[in-house]
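Glycosyltransferase involved in cell wall bisynthesis structure dump, as promised
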Amino acid sequence: MAASELKLKVAIMGAKGYPYVYGGYDTMIKELGERLVKKGVHVRVYNHRALFSKRPRFVNGIECIYTPAIESKSLTQLTHTFFSMLHACFSDVDVILVVNSGNGPFGIISKVFRKPTAINVDGLEWLRPKWKGFGSKYFYWASKMATRFYDQIINDSDEMRRVYLELFNKDSKVIAYGANPKESVSESYLEKWKLVSRTYFLIVGRLVPDNNADLIIEGFLKSDSSKKLVIVGDVPFSDAWASQLKNIQDPRLLFTGYVTDPNELAALYSHCFGYFHGHEFGGTNPAMLKALGYGCAILALNTPFNQEMLQNGKHGWYFEKDAESVKQIVAKAESEPEKMESLRKTAKDGLIQKYNWDYVTEQYLEVFRELARK
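structure tokens r here:
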């Protein structure tokens, strides 16, 4: 019998694991994996062993394999995928899904073993400021190798599909990242920071240069706004750039660090006057989807990716990459509160079908079945 007629077995690797919900890929594996299990698929997730003190074999029907890694800042993720790929290729899985274009070269292992593969390559990693020199060259090369060694390339936006066609002459299937629309939560969760609904702008994201928090802060502080700017997020390591930002002294700035309580984070989104999105490189962004899902008025950096997500201005306003433009959009937002309210009321309409996790799962399942048949 063909694999598609038996119980389909899918291995997923390249993120931290399940149920380790920390970043975008981990969230995707959770949402996708749990839905695939309900559809009768055998899902195996490769977990980064060092992150799990308890290591049950099955969690919510998902098989968890705990593979090791060489623990260093630049090698952890790559070596973890390398060991996971070897394990999967020696097993009876039908299809392997890898996330992160940095894992592009490991497709050669699955090619040798003739295991069908798909890779979700995500954003323009080689352009991110944190990967200077060799790191940037590696990610560009790895992304190119992904287009050679994997059977199916998956991108999460039409713009990223265009980039891969242009740079690597390789078409890809577009499957967006999903969103979970949320109900607004009580303002009482804001008391922890002495905040009041609609009296602050919000930034959510890692404090890294390509998210442009420095630019937004500079422009905001140049404005005449009496509101606060709340910055949620940090970096999990010592970093001079992030420290310099957090040391800016101004009563209008509030750095919360990481917010791990989902209700507190939901309240910060739900009750902000405007949500600033400065992410520069990448396709469908999870923080932007959360902002739409919580009904935020979105002010986004003008990039092709953000234009695509907000349907060319239907669900948000744009600012350019300079502090003066940020200053102007703050003034515009505060002078047109009724338009900001209109953006909040229609934000969830921006979560069109392609951002629905059930729809996303169906599309992945289609890819897996097709690969298994081959």
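The chain is about 40% helix and 15% strand.
lmk if u need the other ones
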